[in-house]
Amino acid sequence: MIRLLIADDEDLIRGALTALLRLEDDLDVVAEAATTTEAVRLAAIHKVDIAVLDLEMPPGDGVRAAQEILAELPAKVVLVTRHARPGVLRRALAAGISGFVPKTTPAARLAEIIRAVARGQRYVDPDIAASALTEHNCPLTDRELDVLREARDGASINEIAARVHLASGTVRNYLSSAMTKLGVGSRHAAAHRAWEEGWI
């Protein structure tokens, strides 16, 4: 029996996915979570074999939650996403995830992918993989990406500075540099572009 954690901040999707996967004889959904924090905690408590995580789930995201789960357990992670941005694939694979699928994947197909992952295989949706091969390389530094990640929710310069533990002037410099590299006129536009590309 493969022990699963299902994590998605949308109750309807999480509930439907849980119900459908429980119809499979060899899959056992032992925990459900609505946040990344809850997902990490419940994965450890229930010693799950595979965590099926929504990529865009607060706080943070599914990639960060995957990293925390994989650091704690000999588990595997399958990321499910509505926005299959190819840049995210590189981050996800670097984090050690075993599966990357769009939310349009039928439940029966997801069950097959989960079984393959449990056997030690890796699965990446072919369309996402094809997009990743043609994506643009990110021109931004890690620090520029850090400040853009925090700018995405409309945070002020001072709020961003506090979150990333930098001086406000330094944050301004990183944001200005990122805006110049991306050819946009505001930090919000830069953050949105970086998100669209899957860099953050």
What does the model show?
The chain has 200 residues and is an alpha/beta fold. The protein folds into two domains: 2-133, 3-Layer(aba) Sandwich (Rossmann fold); 142-197, Winged helix-like DNA-binding domain superfamily/Winged helix DNA-binding domain (Arc Repressor Mutant, subunit A), CATH 1.10.10. Helix content is 54%, strand content 15%. A six-stranded parallel β-sheet has the order 2-1-3-4-5-6, sandwiched between helices. β3 (50-54), α3 and β4 form a beta-alpha-beta unit. The longest helix has 15 residues, at 168-182. It is elongated and about 55 Å long. The model has no long low-confidence stretch (mean pLDDT 91).
N-C termini distance: 35 Å
Backbone shape:
elongated
Strands across the major sheet, in which order?
2-1-3-4-5-6
β-strand amount = 15-25%
Q: Tally the beta strands.
A: 6
Give the helix/strand class.
alpha/beta
- Can you count the helices? 10
- Counting structural domains, the number is 2
Quickly name the level 1 CATH class of the largest domain: Alpha Beta
Assembly type: single chain
- Radius of gyration, CA atoms, in whole angstroms: 18 Å
Largest sheet: 6 strands, parallel
CATH fold node name of the largest domain: Rossmann fold
> SSE string, helix = H, strand = E?
EHEHEHEHEHEHHHHH
Helix content: 40-55%
CATH superfamily of the largest domain: Response regulator
**Which stretches are poorly predicted, pLDDT < 50 over at least 5 residues?**
none
CATH hierarchy: architecture of the largest domain: 3-Layer(aba) Sandwich
